[in-house]
Amino acid sequence: MTDTSFMKTPQVEIPVSAAGNIPNNPDHQGREDLIGLSREQLAERFALLGEKPFRVNQVWSWLYNRGIRDIDGMTNISRETRTKMQDVFHISRPSITSQQDSEDGTRKWLLKFGDRNEAETVYIPDRDRGSVCISTQVGCTLTCRFCHTGTQKLVRNLGAAEIVGQFLTARDSYGEWPTPNETGRLLSNVVVMGMGEPLFNYDNTVTALKILTDPDGIALSKRRVTLSTSGVVPRMYDLGRDVGVNLAVSLHAARDDIRDQIMPINKKWPLKDLIKACREYPAVSNARRITFEYVMLKGINDSDADARELARLVRGIPCKFNLIPFNKWPGSDLECSSWDRIERFADILCDLGYSAPVRRPRGRDILAACGQLKSESQRERLKRHQTTEAPPAA
């Protein structure tokens, strides 16, 4: 049923977001953001403006196929309709606070949203294509010991417009408009592995993923989208049903006692529940295996026995492992396993029939590697606090 609550503007009325009392990502004039609205929501908005259903396809193509940032540039829409749209809608992008380029070609953006909160987005190139790593929260509620982001408390969830906007910003940066075909893309994949736990921001994340995979816009194949979760078990079932993108699970231990220590979420959803959800994930198959991410921590989870227990734990699940050398960050007391130990661990898994490549760290020099993301505003705030609290020099 169409939402019947409204926000008034000088000329027309637009519906309030189903999630609250304000429109989707409003600008300073209170105009609703076209970015982040689902097709169904756009249809409702245009019906209330007296527009025909075909208007949705026109606008969708301008936003997500051509990457337009100005309503007035939608030249196949009448000037009268564009004026009407401009009264109630805007088209957003996060503003870029900073951009850093790594020696290995990785690019990281610190993006600022309308309320001045920030999150990080990373592009990781791989030969003639690459992945955009997007965030779903500012900060994180989880406190995984190996993750820098987990040291930044959760500020808020990102809206669908802000999640999609990260990919749009990356496309702007590389000039990849209009949407190229499947074989001609630099930005070919999305990994939902940035700041935050995406399944704790489920509705906004799913809306964003549906926009990213819509064939008439950005047109990413679902097999090129991977969402990583720390193990929010109930939502894993929902994700498989609602979008069916690839699933990656931050596993990092084969026993509850170890996982409890490094990932407190395990106390709520222990391994037996997590592994059951993986076995029953609707989209899993031999062609689309679950990826188990496993950060290599010296003396904690990297023994021969750990490797064998890991293989027993996931037996029967179409899966592969992604072994991640721990990326050191300021303040961490953890150490990365030695390279010899990582190779031995990988060899054991391979001998037991599992693919277990070691992820090559990317963007370490700009703190863009796995587990290193943390918004620069938080770093600067901490630095100022430490300077204030430091005793005067003798």
From TrEMBL:
- Cofactor entry: [4Fe-4S] cluster
Biological process (GO) annotations held by this record are: rRNA base methylation; tRNA methylation
What are its E.C. numbers?
A: 2.1.1.192
**Keyword terms of this UniProt record:** 4Fe-4S, Cytoplasm, Disulfide bond, Iron, Iron-sulfur, Metal-binding, Methyltransferase, rRNA processing, S-adenosyl-L-methionine, Transferase, tRNA processing
Question: Per its UniProt record, what Pfam families does this chain match?
Answer: Radical_SAM, RlmN_N
Which intervals of the chain form a coiled coil? none
Q: Where is the Radical SAM core domain?
A: 126-365
Q: Does the keyword Zinc-finger apply?
A: no
UniProt GO MF annotations: 4 iron, 4 sulfur cluster binding; metal ion binding; rRNA (adenine(2503)-C2-)-methyltransferase activity; rRNA binding; tRNA (adenine(37)-C2)-methyltransferase activity; tRNA binding
Q: Which reaction does it catalyse?
A: adenosine(37) in tRNA + 2 reduced [2Fe-2S]-[ferredoxin] + 2 S-adenosyl-L-methionine = 2-methyladenosine(37) in tRNA + 5'-deoxyadenosine + L-methionine + 2 oxidized [2Fe-2S]-[ferredoxin] + S-adenosyl-L-homocysteine; adenosine(2503) in 23S rRNA + 2 reduced [2Fe-2S]-[ferredoxin] + 2 S-adenosyl-L-methionine = 2-methyladenosine(2503) in 23S rRNA + 5'-deoxyadenosine + L-methionine + 2 oxidized [2Fe-2S]-[ferredoxin] + S-adenosyl-L-homocysteine
**Where, by residue number, does S-adenosyl-L-methionine bind?**
196-197, 228, 250-252, 327
Instruction: Kindly list the positions annotated as binding [4Fe-4S] cluster.
Output: 140, 144, 147
What PROSITE patterns does the record tag this protein with? RADICAL_SAM
Show the InterPro entries listed in the entry: Aldolase_TIM (IPR013785), Methyltransferase_A (IPR040072), RlmN_N (IPR048641), RNA_MTrfase_RlmN (IPR027492), rRNA_lsu_MTrfase_RlmN/Cfr (IPR004383), rSAM (IPR007197), rSAM_sf (IPR058240)
This molecule's function is given as:
Specifically methylates position 2 of adenine 2503 in 23S rRNA and position 2 of adenine 37 in tRNAs. m2A2503 modification seems to play a crucial role in the proofreading step occurring at the peptidyl transferase center and thus would serve to optimize ribosomal fidelity.
The entry assigns this protein to a family as follows: Belongs to the radical SAM superfamily. RlmN family.
Q: What is this protein's name?
A: Dual-specificity RNA methyltransferase RlmN
Gene field: rlmN
